[in-house]
Amino acid sequence: MMGIFEMISGSGSGVGEGPFVCIGIPLKAGGHDVMCPVSKRCVSYGALEIEVQAIKDELDALLQRAKESFEDSATEDALGLRADMSPEEIWSVLSELSQEDLFAKGYNSLDEGTRRAVAEHVLTQCNVFSGMASVFSSRYNSETGLLE
Q1: Exposed e or buried b for every residue in 109-131, given b needs 16+ CB within 10 A?
Q2: What's the pLDDT tens digit per position in 34-83?
Q3: Which of 18, 22, 9 is nearest to 50 (CA)?
């Protein structure tokens, strides 16, 4: 992989402003080379270390979200859930599961609109005092639309 980041160095234009460095990404736009900064200007090595760590933390968080997305997709595939299924059909698949963790993971892997449609079906059409509907109603968080 080629390097993505480059160091931008310069000096302040105001009185008392000294040299600085920041992290940038080179871009080509309309035939022009442009350096796009992705960090604050740093006047010391310590300040630059803090900016680099912040970028690493953001990349780690992005990697974690991607991992969860791939796992969610794999869960949907393993359960046979498809985007074209009705809330009733999805609930039929989920309610047959005997493992509560797999049940919750399968439900939580759905996109938000589908989750809310399934939740509406369960809470208005199913007996929430028995079976997986009972588990659903006890774990459902209406604010997030997720099973906790």
Answers
A1: bbeeebbebbbebbeeebebeee
A2: 999 999 999 999 999 999 999 999 999 999 988 877 776 666 677 888 77
A3: 22
